[in-house]
Amino acid sequence: MLGTLRRDVRAVRERDPAARSTLEAILCYPGLHAVWGYRIGHWLWGHKLLLLARLVSTITHRCTGVDIHPAATIGSGLFIDHATGVVIGETAEVGDDVTIYHGVTLGGTSLERGKRHPTIGDRVTIGAGAKVLGPFTVGHDSRIGANAVVVKPAPPDSVVVGVPGQVIVRSYPRPQPSQPDLDQVLLPDLIGVSIRSLLTRVEELEVALNCRLTPAHVHPSETGMWPGEDFSI
């Protein structure tokens, strides 16, 4: 247990440049407090002190804004950044060295007893506001984009974006070992790319058939910026 607690602190230091010291991480990070509160509650749950475990969970929730059921299974090195609004359900399983941002839900989609929450692999990064709903697995080393709604399995080393979440298998798997995959800027716009491709093909067909009746389709410039003239603003 002591080794696990040390690794939790180390996760804060490694994954948040704002953490300037170990003492600061221990005293000032509600995400770390939430993880430690969960570990106490989980120990009580494992020793059949169910009501006391739920009481610890409730107190931790009120103090940190993070709601983790004590029956959930969470590996070492979990880092919950900013903490507020995170929910991890009863049958959820979270691997080692996972990074979770604020507003994330690992929830269920059924009222049936038994496994109804997701299983998150090792070294997964879950962006702010993402929802992972259902009893399926998100593979190791995957990244879930901010505000994605994931309702189906994702293989290892994949990226999930959009609503509902679309799974992209990486062309170039991440090397191991490597730092947590925190770069949300690289998330692709699947719908935008698809629409742009269709518009380009339609325009090419019109030119080839020499039957263009309307001006060129509305589209962003090469820099990705949309011209205001397209929208009369």
How are the elements arranged and paired?
Elements: H1 2-15, H2 22-28, H3 30-46, H4 50-64, E1 66-68, E2 73-74, E3 79-80, E4 86-88, E5 93-94, E6 99-100, E7 105-107, E8 119-120, E9 125-126, E10 131-133, E11 137-138, E12 143-144, E13 149-150, E14 158-161, E15 166-169, H5 190-209
Parallel strand pairs: 1-4, 2-5, 3-6, 4-7, 5-8, 6-9, 7-10, 8-11, 9-12, 10-13, 12-14
Antiparallel strand pairs: 14-15
Give an account of the 3D structure:
- The chain folds into two domains: 2-186, UDP N-Acetylglucosamine Acyltransferase, domain 1 (3 Solenoid); 190-231, no CATH class.
- Helices cover 31% and strands 16% of the residues.
- It contains five helices and 15 strands.
- A hairpin with a 4-residue loop joins strand 14 (158-161) and strand 15 (166-169).
- It is elongated and about 75 Å long.
- By secondary structure, it is an alpha/beta fold.
- The model has no long low-confidence stretch (mean pLDDT 85).
